[in-house]
Amino acid sequence: MEIRVYINGSEIPLKDKTLISGPGKYRAGRLLYFVLKALHQMPRLYGVTESDPIAGWKRNFETKFASILTSNLEPGKIRLEGTFKLDLEKFSISGKVNGGTIDVRVELNQIPDNVYPGLRGMVQVDSFYFSGLNRPRPFLVPGSKDGILAGFHRFLVLQTESASGVPKTLGIVSEYINSIVLPQGYSTELRGRRLTTDEKEGLFLDGEALYNVEPEMLSLLSLRLSLDMAQEGSVLIVEDPEAHLSQDSLKEVKIWLDRFKGPLILVTEDSSFGNRVIRF
């Protein structure tokens, strides 16, 4: 089921590569990330008995979606402003985020037939709307990725799929660091230099702790790790992919990004990354 996404009234295609630019590009890109994250985290809604299952499901979805958005934004004091809409064919989700205030509305474009009352009807309605629903996982790579990687290199080797990660109070930092889960014994090579893990000390590049590594190599490593973590079909949102990179490094990064199998949103003023640009 195709998703059509609108941020502040502009559609952002979730196919291939799109650039977003302009003075409001960071807030637009982050609003896109958190809205898609809320959709990805939405649970099934069939555990509550309602006399009117259709109206009940709609109301429960609005409440839960707003609650998930709040839980992701509030701990880190992430302040976003803007409107959004997700057109999911059978129904659409629209809303407005203004600082700490979040408003969510659901419109049902299709209605299931012959719905039973009570719990049985709630299961029926929930199955109807979730059937075939595409909920891709979004990944956010902030513009300050190199500094974040240097500062949190020791934590990365402690993460597992079951770990809670760094606290959400760290805001965008936690969104980035918690998206990178390295397996035991992880290592990779980049430009003839080897990135390795030490269970107690963190990540090292040719035996050097990452906080001593030059910014250009840190930027390359942060992009490489993010691309490795983002599964095929995920939505990857990268802020300032050109930051701290030479022309040779830019060419290398563009090859990596072109190989990514999923929607790619680049938040940048550098038009050399592509010609499909949306301004905010």
From TrEMBL:
<protein>
    <submittedName>
        <fullName>Uncharacterized protein</fullName>
    </submittedName>
</protein>
